[in-house]
User: What shape does this take?
Amino acid sequence: MYLKPIAFVVGLLVALSGGLMLIPAACDLLLSRQEALLFFRDACSTVLAGGTCALLTRPGAFRLDPRQILVLANLAWMTLAVFAALPFTSVGHMTFSDAFFETMSGITTTGSTVMSDLQDVDSGLLLWRSMLQWIGGIGFIVIAVAILPLIRVGGMRLFQSESSHWSDNKCLPRSGSIAKATVLVYLLLSVLCALGYFLAGMSVFDAVNHAMTTLSTGGYSTGDASMAGFSNSWIYWNGTAFMLLGSLPFILFVRAGNRVSHLLRDSQVQAFLGLMGVLWIGMTLWLTFTENKDFFSTFTEVAFNTTSVVTTTGYALGDYSRWGPMPAMVFFFLMLVGGCSGSTAGGIKIFRLQIAMQLLSRQLKQACHPRAFIVHRYNGEEVTADILRSLIAFCFFYSLLVALIAVLLSGMGLDTVTSLTAALTAVSNIGPGLGDIVGPAGNFSSFPDVGKWLLSMGMLMGRLEIITVLVLLTPAFWKN
Assistant: This one.
C-alpha cells in the first residue's frame, strides 16, 4: 500500500491542530496567564512536527483508494490525540496516560474525564478541551457522510445513493460543496447555541465552551457540577434543543434549506423525535407520581438528562442514577441508542434499530405467509442482503467489544456496574456511566492506567464504527 499520501494528509492535520492551539494560548495571554507560553511552545512543536511530515511526504496529484482512506481515518485520529495531549501534560501537569484519555475522550466527543476541580483549571486548557470536542464532532460528520457509505460499514451504504445524488444537484454541483455547506451549518448552529446560552445568563466564556460541547454532543463542561452549576431553566432548554439538533443528520439540514418539512419527513428523524417525546412524558409522569415531584421542574430535568444520554452528550443535571431502579435501568438501555446517522452523536444509531424492527416484522409476516415476496425498504431505499450483513456484523462486534472491555475492567478489580457501564459509555461515546465511580457525579481518575488506555481504544473504535478499526487487524487488508 502506498502510504506517502496518507502521511502527507496526517501531517497537514497535525500542523492545523497546532495552529488551533494558538487560540487557547491567546485566551491565556488576554488573561495574563503564564500558561500562554506553554501553549505557544506546544503549538510551535506540533506545527513543526506536522509541517515537517507534510513537506517530506508531499506527493504530486493523488487520489486515495478505500484502503488508504481507512488507514488515514485511524491514523489521523490516533496521531491527533497524541499531539493534542501535549497541553494537558504541560499546562495541566497530567501524566501522559491521563492526558491521552482526556484528549481521546474529547476528539471522539465521548465526554468522560479524569479532571476535577475545574474551577481551578487554566481557562485556556478548558477552552482547548472544548475545542477538541467541537473539532471531533465536525470531523465525524465528514467521515459519516463521505467515507463510511463508500466502504460499507455498519449499513451506512443506505445513505450512499443520497450523497451521490446531492453531489449532482444544481445547487450543489460538487461533493466539496456539500462538505462546505455542512461546515457552514455546523458553524451557524454553534453560534446560535452560544448566543442562546449567553442570553440565558451564561458568561461569554461559559457560553462559547458549552456551545462547542453541546452541538458536538460531547458534554465537557467548565465546572464539576456540569449543567447543574447553572440554576436557570432557559439554559437547560437551550442545551436540550441544540443537543437534539446535533443528533440529527447534518446533510439533511443542507438539503432542507428553508423548508423544515424536508427534515421532518425523514423516517430516522421521525423515529428519533418520537422516541424523545415518549421518554420525556413517560419518565416525567413516573417521577411525578412515585416521587411526588413538581411536574414542570421534573419535566425540564427529565428532558435534559434523557436527551443528554440518548444523544450521547453526557451532560448531567443532577445525579439521575439516584432516581430509582426503574429509571436507572431505562438510562442503561438508552446508552445503547444514540442519535441519527450523519450526526455528531454516537451509539448504535436510530436507523439500525429501525431496520432491526422492520426485519422482525418482516419475519413475522413471512411466517404467516411463507410464499409472499416482501421487499424490505427504508426511507425509500431497498435494504439489500449486503446491507443487512453489514448491519448485523456491526451490532455483533459492538456487543462483543462492550462485553470484552467490561470483562477486562472487572479483572482489574472494578465492580460489575462500573465495569459494564464504563465499557458501554466508552464504545457508545456517552461520557458518564452509572454508579458512584463513573456516574454523573464521578469521573475516571481512579481507574488504573491500563483501564484508561483500554477505554481510550474503546472510544476510538466506537467513534469510527468499530469495523473501520478492526479491518486493519486482518492480514488480508495489507496484501496487495
Summary: The chain has 21 helices and two strands. The first strand starts at residue 377 and ends at 378. Residues 312 and 430 are 4 Å apart (CA to CA).
